[in-house]
Specification:
Low-confidence stretches: none
Oligomer: single chain
Strand content: 25-35%
Strand order of the largest sheet: 1-6-7-2-5-4-3
Distance between the termini: 55 Å
Structural class: alpha+beta
Order of helices and strands: EHEHEEEHEEH
Length: 160
């Protein structure tokens, strides 16, 4: 029997999502993939930069515009790099997401793509878009905490 991976290993992250959106709730979703997509992901080749999550009329959740490049050693039945991929969530979670996205300014964004116990998972989040001044405020707070940490490190070094 094949030895399964233990723990998690990150494949791709959507850093832009944390910058552009204020994260409210996070969910872990499975993803329906073909064999060549999984092989490409095991090589660490994926991008969530321009991807988004949508819910169709039938209540199915889809990851769209995520780039998983073609598997190099694939044959004629290789996958399309930017095809829609179905996300696997519980019905109660989907109903909750539908209710919450009805509110103004809320959307669902993918945060990261990772392996968990040998299976590919996607971390998605219910998020509200930040305004420009919110982004500047967040950057200013991060810079202030970095400067405070630097000052503390310098002060501790001098006391020795």
């Amino acid at each position: 029997m094949a030895n399964k991976e233990q723990g998690t290993s990150t494949i791709a992250q959507n850093r832009r999502a944390r910058h552009d959106y204020e994260i409210e709730d996070q969910y872990e979703a499975g993803i329906a993939l073909s064999g060549t997509e999984v092989k490409s992901l095991r090589e660490g080749r994926a991008s969530l930069a321009e991807s988004f999550v949508s819910i169709d009329r039938r209540g199915e959740v889809w990851l769209e515009n995520a780039n998983i490049p073609e598997y190099f050693n694939g044959t004629w039945n290789n996958h399309a790099p930017k095809r829609r991929r179905k996300l696997l969530l519980h019905a109660a979670q989907i109903a909750k997401l539908i209710r919450q996205t009805q509110a103004k300014g809320y959307t669902i964004v993918p945060l990261s793509l990772y392996f968990k116990a040998g299976r590919v998972k996607v971390a998605i989040a219910l998020a509200r878009g930040k305004r420009e001044y919110d982004k500047r405020q967040t950057m200013r707070e991060a810079q202030d905490t970095r400067e405070a940490q630097r000052a503390m490190r310098y002060a501790n070094r001098r006391s020795l």
